[in-house]
Amino acid sequence: MPTNLNEAIQRAADSLAADPAAAERLIRPALAQAPADPRARLIFASSCRRQGRAAEALAILQPLAAAWPKAANTQFELGTTLAALGRDSEAVEPLSRAVSLNRDLSLAWKALGEALFRLGEDQDAERAFAEYARTQLTDPVLKPIAEALFARRYDEAEARLRSLLVQRPNDPDALRLLAQALIATSRPDEGEKTLHRCLALAPDDHAARFMLANLYFLRQIPAAALAQVRLLLRADPQEIAYLSLEAGCLARLGETDRVTEINEGLAARFPAQPKMWLNVGHSHRTAGDRIRARAAYERALALAPGFGEAWWALANLKVEPFSDADVGAMTEQLAGASDRDRLHLHFALGKAHEDRKAFAAAFDHYAAGSKLHLATAPHDASAVTARIDRAIGFYTRELIEARAGQGDPSDAPIFVVGLPRSGSTLVEQILASHSAVEGTMELPEIANLVMELEASARRHGASWPEALANLSSLDLARLGAAYLEGAAAYRRTERPRFIDKMPTNFLQVGLITLILPNAKIVDVRRHPMAVGFSCFKQHFEGGASFSYGLTDIGRWYADYARLMDHFDEAAPGRVHRVIYEDLVEDTEGEVRRLLAALDLPFETACLAFHENRRAVRTISSEQVRRPIFRDGLDQWRNFEPWLGPLAVALGGRLASWRG
Known about the structure:
By secondary structure, this protein is mainly alpha-helical. It contains 34 helices and five strands. It is 64% helix and 4% strand. The chain has a five-stranded parallel β-sheet with strand order 2-3-1-4-5, sandwiched between helices. The longest helix is centred in the last third of the chain and has 21 residues, at 550-570.
């Protein structure tokens, strides 16, 4: 073959990625000289596809791929062209063949992952994207380490990376891989520091920046995550992963309208992706549009009938009971479902059977779902008891009186604490209907402060919370100010007061008392059997680990009540208690008492809380959009034959639960 033909083909190939039009101009003479040359035909087809002429490219590629079935690049081009034409289901086969022929064909893995994602094949898509990440490394020293990470041999990978970084301390790829190993082995603080080192050396390392954004998101620091993801969106404004993470951050920050806009845009781009429709449904539910939420969840189920999260979302929506056909469909899907889908299906079926008053069957499903959860996320009740023992021992009346008046003087925060399902969302909705109070959400700021303080204590060889004894009044004021600064990211109005409704803040009443002495604390309490069973039948995504075992729930309630009793003695009047049952029976009287305790004048709008159209993100969103009703007070009695372990664990709290 003439040398000039080979040179022309090489020049065209070199131009293809950067300037496909130039590649076409260069390859046409070669194609005229040797019209059957597979290299020239492939380059010409690729240039057509890259310029938006996918149909023209396909006419060339189909016979070419049939003639050369073992040519990885040809199979890749065929698959990519089919995907460009919207024929993802056909694209998967040639793309899969391409990566089987050449496992290091990076762009083929990426194209395969994207096609699978659009088809709703999430697990296969994740594997393809993981392979794509692996192929991005070309350094022969780092490739085997990346393989170890890919195979989850984290200890081996970390040891090799630390040894390599002694020789190459400023290698951003090695630092990014080390951060990945650290995060995978539950060392987020070290992972964050390593990612910052990596980005200081390589600010355009998008993989490292996305890893950092995800880390902030998982640590419930959405404002920091959003800042990182928006830098990524400047470089690639249409990237699915970046947009999805942006929506997640904005949801946590309360930007409901923008979240809906992003989720609906993604669903329009990927209409075969059930998770996109699930997110659309969540957006509409938060905004109070149950009809559109239901339609989106049903769209997700039409695409994936075994999608447990969508069934559970419908159950939580509480629009109307499941039909017999729905129950049959869920039961049928149980057999071949993944553990994650089965967990959600069991909880949804529990709700369906409870609505039918088939209480034994309902309890069996709730228990089966809880068992699946506990298999991967066990709860350590003894650790919680020990933590509360330490808090009771440290936050004495003498300490609190000695530190009185220290901390930040702001009276803006109103902390609403208690157990989930205790009525705290109702109390929040009542308060957020007052003209002086802004409802935010369950803020992670106190928990984030505690994580930082505990980490600092460990570094200095101190214990928690005893390390607080060494803090000055200035230190306490700075901590209070830091909380207020973090909470400001979630605020959207100029109202002088705001609500932080994180239930587990009851664990930090002592810390709140020290750093925010003028903040108000409201403890919402409900009959322990009622709230205990209500927690047990509810699947909480990413939280309430105690709620999946009846004994654990009883111990959690007893420990919670014990700690709140302690603060009633150590800081009299510091906590205002609302009994949910009393609020139901005498709503106006209890609301007046609550507002007085918070130094707020009575407003009738607080009694019309169900007319407040604010966004509500918790699972109680539908209940607080209706007037108060008594129906749920004694539902637990239908399940009393199975709740013995809860009653035993509660012990004396059954008689003294009001405090």
